[in-house]
Structure formats: structure tokens, C-alpha cells
Amino acid sequence: MRYKFDSGSFRLRDVFGQLISSVFLVAIIGFFVALMLHLSEAPETDTALWTATEARIEASAVERLPGQDQLQFRPVVRYSYPWTTADQPAKVLHSDQIQIPGLVFEDYTAAFLVIKDRLPGTAVRAYVNPANPAEAVLQHPLTSKRSQFRTLATLIALAGIALFVKIWLPETPLTARMWGALICLILIGVGTWCTWVMASPFFSYFKSGLRWKETPCTVLESQVHHQSRIEKNEVWHEYRPRIFYEYQFGGTLYRSTRYSLADTYSRQQSGADSILARYPPGKTAVCFVNPQQPWESMLRHEIGWSLLQILFPVPLVVGGVFFFFRSLFSPFSGSVRGTWTRSVDNSNLD
User: Fold this and answer.
1) Is 64 helix (H, G, I), strand (E, B) or coil?
2) What is the DSSP track for 283-311?
3) Average pLDDT value over all residues in the chain
4) Less CB within 10 Å around the terminal CB: N or C of the chain?
5) What is the pLDDT of residues 188-197, one digit of tens each?
6) Sequence-ordered list of residues with C-beta below 8 angstroms from that of 220, at least 6 positions apart, any chain
């Protein structure tokens, strides 16, 4: 008894072409995956092998970068750490580097979160350069960008496997289901990632039960940030109101630059100027503070239509889940290209 491959519409002359196509495809996928992983790890290659030691925070603050046309903030943490070697006595060194490259934010709250738990007198872990002990950092580069690169690399790898299955393997009920399931997994991954990115600004808002407290605040600085980009040979302008204000909540002074929960911008400068006219420097206004996390605040306490952006990737997730289970459990109705059949060899019966 032998097994024979019935090619159907599958031709042996196509084998070479499919082999070249699959090798080329795998090479492209491998290149992109390697590039993603390289970019995701590149920022921390200089500090990954540095020596870990205990450090103590001496001071921490958020500084407004001077001489900037736009509002930018830098978290500053000054700390000391001991260092000793076999041929040198122990000594105490000082540094104010948080990571390499340095951190600069346009959002004051993002800069504040870096120093929030690094209060004076707190013991933290620092990473010291063995070749130059005067150089140290408190953390490796933030992992959010690495996670995004790895997510994209995973999706690209899934796409490569799906295309490989479609191009090279003979079309059978099993490979057809594999193809459909992989495509659905890609849709689910893309939709979930997009939903997470779009919905993350709203998490704390809903977690607090929408009960943000009205609190008086004082405007420190206000200006318009202008950005332009070219799309389809047309220049698009975006004007964002940037308002820097401070307030007291629970006896603690906080600062913020958040105007609303969603990104607010106008295609015309007059739209942003009309907002700034209501918040001139020195004016006492009203902001809304998250009572559970009082460092979070905003001047405009409404969501509006911005919440609908969360719903855009939801059809990808729902459709991906639906067709994933359908591809696995529904009866196969497509054409079969190439099947393995069992044949009986009667040549040796005589």
C-alpha cells in the first residue's frame, strides 16, 4: 500500500516558482522582524550591561526647558550612589541622569509621573557604567516603544506564516483553515492593539467614576503649538492650545498642561487662539481634578465625540473573532488543490 499525491490544479512546474516566492517572502519577513527587534533593543544596548547598585534620591523636580518656543518639560532626579573597585577605595558619586537618551515631554503630567515615586531619601536602583563610574542611569529606556516594535514584529511574522501557507502548501481543508485562522489572528491583533492605544487616555477617567472635582487653578503660561505635514501634495496645519496651570488639591500643589481628555487641535489658528483668549497668563480658572489620582486634571471636563474613536478598531476584533471560529469549525466548502490519496500496488500480487 502506497500514498500518492494527486496534484489536481497543482503542477510540478510551479514548484520552483513557489519555492523562489516562499524563500523571498521568508527573507523579507525575517528582515523586518530582525529590524523591529534591533530597533526595539537598540536604545538600551549601551546600558544593558552596566552594573546595578543601590542609589539614594537627593532631589527630584520637573523643570521647564528654558529658551523654548514650545512648552517642554524635563524630569530631573539627583541621586548619589556608592562605587568601589579592587584598586580604589569606596567613594560616593552623584548623577542626575534618568536614562540615555534624556527624557523630554510636552505633557507636564507625563514628566511628573517619572519623579512621582522618586522622592528625596528614597532608595532606588541605579546602573553604573563600569568604564566610567561617574556615569549612571536610573532606568533603561522605557519599554513602551520596545513593546510596540515587538507587537508589530509578531504581526508581521503571522502574516509571513499565513502567506507561506497560502503560497507553498497544497490547498487542503487543513491548510485552508490554517490560512483563515492566521488572517483572523492578524485582524484580532491589529484591532486589539489599536483599541488599547486609543482607549488608554480614557482609562483613569472611567476608573474614577467620572467624578472629577472642580478646583480653582491659576494659568501660568499659554501658547499655540503649530505643526504641519504634507499629505497628497497638500499641506495640513494643526494648531493646538497649550495651557500651563497650577492648582492645589488636598494641600499639595500640582501642575498640568492638559486641556481636555482627548487631543484638541484646530486646522485654523483662530480656533486655538479663541481657546487661549479664555486662559490668559495669571487668570484664575476652574480645572477638574481626578480625586483618586490628583496629579491628573484638565480644563475642559467633557469627552464629546472623541470617545467614538475607540469604536473604530472594534469591528476588526469582533470580525476577527467571528471568522476565526468560523474558519475552524464551519464545514469546508472550497476547492481542494492537491490531496493525498491511498493507492494499492498490485504489481507484486502475481
Assistant:
1) strand
2) -EEEEEE-SSSTT-EESS---GGGGGGGG
3) 76
4) C
5) 877 887 777 7
6) 244, 245, 246, 255, 281
CB 280 within 8 A of CB 304: no
Number of H helices, E strands in the chain: 7, 12
Q: How far apart are CA 242 and CA 257, in angstroms?
A: 7
Matching residue, cell 504489481: 347
Local structure of 9: helix, strand or coil:
coil
DSSP state of 201: G
**Largest Cα–Cα distance in the chain?**
107
Mean pLDDT along residues 5-21: 49
pLDDT at 5 over 70: no
Q: Do 344 and 3 touch, CB atoms closer than 8 A? A: no
Closest CA to 43 of 153, 193, 154, 148: 148
Q: At what angle do helices 143-167 and 173-199 cross, to 10 degrees?
A: 160
Q: How does pLDDT run across 15-26, given as a tens digit for each residue? A: 555 555 555 555
E-strand spans in the chain?
Answer: 2-6, 51-64, 73-85, 88-95, 123-128, 136-137, 213-231, 234-249, 252-256, 284-289, 297-298, 339-343
Spatial contact of 305 and 141, defined as CB atoms under 8 Å apart: no
For residue range 209-220, list pLDDT tens digits in order: 467 899 999 999
| Contact status, residue 157 vs residue 144, Cβ threshold 8 Å | no
298 neighbors 201 (Cβ within 8 angstroms):
no
Q: Can you tell me the distance from the alpha carbon of 72 to that of 61, in angstroms, rounded to the nearest whole number? A: 14
Average the pLDDT over 124-137 and give the result. 90
The total of other beta-carbon atoms located within 10 Å of residue 232's CB is: 5
Q: How far apart (Å, rounded) are the C-alpha atoms in residues 328 and 181?
A: 7
Cβ pair 209, 238 in contact under 8 A? no
The x, y and z cell numbers of residue 346, run together, are: 498490485
SS3 state at 75: strand
C-alpha span between 294 and 308 (Å, rounded): 26
